[in-house]
Design brief:
By secondary structure, the chain is of the alpha+beta class. 46% of the residues lie in helices and 25% in strands. It has 2 domains: 92 residues, Multidrug-efflux Transporter Regulator, Chain: A, Domain 2 (Orthogonal Bundle); 124 residues, 3-Layer(aba) Sandwich (Aminopeptidase).
Length: 226
Amino acid sequence: MYKIKEFSKKTALSIVTLRYYDEINLLNPSYVDRYTGYRYYEEDQVHSAIQIRRLKELGLSLEEIKQYMKTNDPMILIRKEKGYERKMKEIEQFLKEQKQKQYQVIKADYKKYVELNGLLHSRSAQALEVKDGNADYYYIMESDQIIKDFVIYKKEKWITLGASEWKKEDMIHAIREEIKKDYDQVCLIVPIEEEEMIRYIKDHYHCHTEEITQAQYSYLKLTFLC
């Protein structure tokens, strides 16, 4: 037999915890000296004590542990596991929403284009397309700072994001959520030699690909549904 202090060391359960488990009839000592009140435990109770400790570490309530110790019903653990799975999905969804909130995509106009890009670019071909209404202009904010802008040419539905930007999947999601208000699809033009980037985009996004030639240079046109 073990005195409660010895049993505590052997099972890594504190004396206070062992006394409490006795009070709630979760783990009663094998024998209690009626004169001294000392609690004594048998060797075969060590396994039960360690099992209770492990179940507590797994997050089971004392009532669930008590039921499991009585019935050895695996459904108690399975239900707990499913509860954790649901909670993990909720956490993952929350984190995903928090990441998406980091980016804000705003549709703007020619005046904003000039404000962000400067007067030197106010007469560029792209700026004039925005001014004439042939292209839509957007800028992206992250944590209240403008980090990038782009246009979509209405006729070709060509978005002027660089291929490398598509590695920022949370940002791309925010962009697609905004531009789908006006577009059912957009296309990206990537030089054919950028094989690694093209492979990444095709692996991570559903898109239609088409090889095109412009001014004797070969490109891959990737078309995405918004």
